[in-house]
Amino acid sequence: MKLEDLLVFREVAKEANITKAAESLNFVQSNVTAKIKRLEGHFETKLFYRHKHGVNLTSTGKVLLSYAEQVLLLMEEAEKMIKDSHIPSGTLSLGAMETTAATRLPGILSTYHDQYPQVELSLQTGTTEELIKATLNREIEGAFVGGKINHPELEEIDVFKEELVLVAKKNILSGIDFDQLKNQTIIVFKSGCFYRDTFEKWLGTKGIRAAKLMELNTLDGVIGCVKAGLGISLLTKSAADQLSKHEDIQQFALPGKYNKITTKFISHKDIVKTLAFSKFTSLLKSGVFN
């Protein structure tokens, strides 16, 4: 059964005559007859009573007509939304790291929503590892992640640069002193977090393997524990600046190559790039958020 069969069926029911329906659709009569027979074969029942003046719907034909009209109406609406609309609409599903969602995304999403209010935005947070997996599986349309990706199935947009800093309650550290760091509890996100990976690699260059780890799932949890003096953590400066405004918190810049990272927006090369998605990536490429 094809959608065109339902279209022909509806026209025959409307005209109550196969010849008139064929003329209306610009089909040959035999083609219309074949499509009706195919529908009757599919449903294993008569849909029309034939008589010398034309055709009339059977009781089962009347049932099918009500559903056919609904199906065709929905398809017409879908076609209009997909092909004819020049205004972004529908849904846009995104992912982001916790720190990015808290500090950078509100401005981006607010700007986008102001321009395209008909788009329904959804956001899930996770580690870079989780977000890459979700993007590859097409569970989300794109995600903000940290570091180098270089995956053959993914496209990348460099969105903004971040500075990484150590954060600690005042008087916990006197500076980047590795003897002191050896004895600190390191507060980190769960495994797969890009910032955690960077922190551990940096400590590893000095032969430090954190003996005491406190693993948390949310940025609020990490910040709360740092504020309470339970340990130190590695955050982006944009997140640390918000924390330092009202709290007794110190920041220490990381040295060398571990100091700067790039946050990227990744997407699968083969996803359907809706108008809503295209407008979002155009906004990111414009550079207004750098």
Describe the secondary-structure layout.
Layout: H1 3-15, H2 18-25, H3 29-43, E1 48-51, E2 54-57, H4 59-84, E3 90-96, H5 98-103, H6 105-115, E4 119-125, H7 128-136, E5 142-146, E6 154-169, H8 178-181, E7 186-189, H9 194-204, E8 213-216, H10 219-227, E9 232-236, H11 237-244, E10 249-253, E11 260-268, H12 275-285
Helix pairs in contact: 1-2, 1-3, 1-4, 2-3
Keywords: DNA-binding, Transcription, Transcription regulation
Organism: Scopulibacillus cellulosilyticus
Domain HTH lysR-type: 1-58
How would you sum up this structure, described in words?
By secondary structure, the protein is of the alpha/beta class. It folds into 3 domains: 3-84, Winged helix-like DNA-binding domain superfamily/Winged helix DNA-binding domain (Arc Repressor Mutant, subunit A); 90-160 and 263-285, Periplasmic binding protein-like II (D-Maltodextrin-Binding Protein, domain 2); 161-261, D-Maltodextrin-Binding Protein, domain 2. It has helices spanning 3-15, 18-25, 29-43, 59-84, 98-103, 105-115, 128-136, 178-181, 194-204, 219-227, 237-244, 275-285, and strands spanning 48-51, 54-57, 90-96, 119-125, 142-146, 154-169, 186-189, 213-216, 232-236, 249-253, 260-268. The strands form 2 sheets. Strands 3, 4, 5, 6, 7, 8, 9, 10 and 11 form a 9-stranded mixed beta sheet that branches. The protein has a two-stranded antiparallel ribbon with strand order 1-2. The protein is rod-shaped, with a radius of gyration of 30 Å. The model has no long low-confidence stretch (mean pLDDT 86).
